[in-house]
Amino acid sequence: MTLSAVRRTPLYAAHLALGAKMVPFSGWEMPLQYPDGILREHEANRKGCSVFDCSHMGEFLIEGEAAASGLENIVTQPLADQPVGTCRYGLALNADGGTIDDLIVYRLAPKKWLVVVNAGNIDKDAAHFRTHLAPGTAFTDVSHATAKIDVQGPLSRDVMVSLVPGVRDLAYYTFGTFSLLGEEVIISRTGYTGELGYEIYYPWDRAPKIWNALCADDRVRPTGLGVRDVLRMEVCYPLYGHELSEDITPLEAGLKRFVDVNKGFIGREALLRRDKDGSRRLIHFISVNRRAPRQGHFLYDAGGILIGDVVSGTFSPALGIGVGMGFIKKEFTGAVKNIIFGDEKIRVEAQAASRPFYKMGTLRN
Predict the structure, then answer these.
(1) Residues near 307 by beta carbon (within 8 Å), at least 6 away in sequence
(2) Local structure of residue 169 (DSSP, 8 states)
(3) What would the pLDDT profile of 165-222 be if each residue is shown by its tens digit?
(4) In a domain, 152, yes or no
(5) Per the structure, how many domains does the chain have?
(6) What angle do helix axes 225-234 and 38-47 make, rounded to 10 degrees?
(7) 84-113, pLDDT tens digit by residue?
(8) Do 197 and 313 fall into the same domain?
(9) FRET label pair with 248: which of 20, 34, 97, 338, CA 20 to 30 Å apart?
(10) Which CATH number is 226's domain given?
(11) CA-wise closest residue to 82 among 58, 115, 57, 59
């Protein structure tokens, strides 16, 4: 995709004014990092408060009962029993059990839903929903009318309460409608960093107002997609196109707890069949030194036998070592403790590890 074809969020000018390095990402021109660098941005998130422009994400509004609308059949998590005012993470699968997308469902009212999807999948997801929702179900793609700003980090509650006192009472994975700088907006207690945090859904053309108000707070540091990727890997969150894809099932990716196989959903039978006959599983591993694994590296056992490949990897500033995730052949799952990652040029020793790598997050504080 050429840069001229890439979309821009309503905060594009604000990013340039802050000196951000802009790069194409999922069809959008987004800030990779700001002048102080990724390490400072990482520190702000783990110890203070960071703010991300996530306006590239997609949002759908759906009206109808969970089952009658067909929404229940699209998402792997049960929705009929989801309380109003709560969020629920789940996945939409294709007929072969592969992952079309991972998403979050907000229950706005008994018969009204907001579904948040990944930026690169907006058009594909919209087509999938329109195809499988029941005839007559109201479906509106509000992605390009909705800006999304994430406020994350141990100090995020203090920062948000200074603007919206009512968010103090939000529990993890709940949301509410609040007045913020003269606008009625949805704010949820969710995020993608492993820290205490909030996500703000703000009118598209008025997003600079809240961004500037947040950045004017000395406790807040603007942060880019570069550190966001590092943060999500430290806590082992999946990223579509890496740990998930149309060829990868959520069970292969270790997301069993977000799949209720006792309910019906598109791809269920194929998912169970592939799980029974499957040949790979996602593992998590840490390097013995600072050398970081990269997507495309291979995984070997201690004897040098090829057992899989790396799908995500980075240097973890929080741990001071390289961390990674990769798929290995099913027969090696649980049996391999010592791992080697690399390619024809380098080989680095690593060890299988439990998730998350970083265990000191304030997510549920």
Answers:
(1) 299, 300, 301, 328, 329, 332, 336, 339
(2) G
(3) 999 999 999 999 999 999 999 999 999 999 999 999 999 999 999 999 999 999 999 9
(4) yes
(5) 2
(6) 50
(7) 999 999 999 999 999 999 999 999 999 999
(8) no
(9) 338
(10) 3.30.1360.120
(11) 115
